[in-house]
Amino acid sequence: METYFLFFIASIVGGVINAIAGGGGLITFPLLMLVVGPMTADATSAVAGFASYPTAVWRTRNLLTGVLGSGWLWLLVIPSFLGGLIGALLLSHTGNRNFTEFVPWLVLLATIIVALRPVLVRRREGGTLQPDLAQTLWPFAMAGIFVVALYGGYFGAGIGILMIGTLTFISPGEIRHVVALKNFLNCWMRGVAVFVLVLDGSVDWKYGAPMAVGGLVGGYIGGIVSHRANRTVVRSIVSLVLQWQFTISGSCTTPL
After folding, report:
1. Percent of residues, the chain, with pLDDT higher than 90
2. Backbone φ and ψ of 213, nearest 5°
3. Long-range contacts for 27-32 (Cβ within 8 Å, ≥24 apart)?
4. Which residue from 77, 83, 196 is spatially nearest to 149, judged by alpha carbons?
5. pTM confidence score
């Protein structure tokens, strides 16, 4: 019983991290590796991670006001969904995660982008998520989201960080709004990926069930933090989490 409680608490912490900066899997995945194989740990961790997104989106839904009905949002949702689906199918059919040695460097790249975000968006940052992107650049934006989602469906560690970094080039909105949009897109991406992994029978539910409940709780708590804190505090939290994730990400990328 103590073991399941430990996994429940870990998934709450991971859910809070997912809802703010992303990367809660860097907590849940290594912990699961202590009790199950890599493939099962990956799938079970994905269940816990996905659970944090619906509650985070619900708690920060007012930050998405005026966005949910926008046509441009679906130009981001579609590649998020398709990338997550294809990535999960690749994982379930190959079981190969050899490329994950690059995860620390992907996290570092996203960390640099987020750190430079105030400079990159300059005076454009404000209380809106409306994209500041020329029409001719939208195919590149969709391709970028698709590549990030493909990685997210295949492995997913640090996916929230990478999504924030990608959205920096699409939306000039303040960091709290971008975090809310990140959670919305990741909900689609990780949702379809988890569906594939569940059908594949890769999830160990004796750990997955309590961790999913913990993820729901953590996502809601993280949503409260990202919603109530001012943008300077949220940006500082994101930056600290990113630095921590770059430090530890190399320890949870052992290939199958």
Report:
1. 26
2. -65, -45
3. 28/211, 29/157, 29/252, 30/251, 30/252, 31/6, 31/7, 32/7, 32/204, 32/207
4. 83
5. 0.81
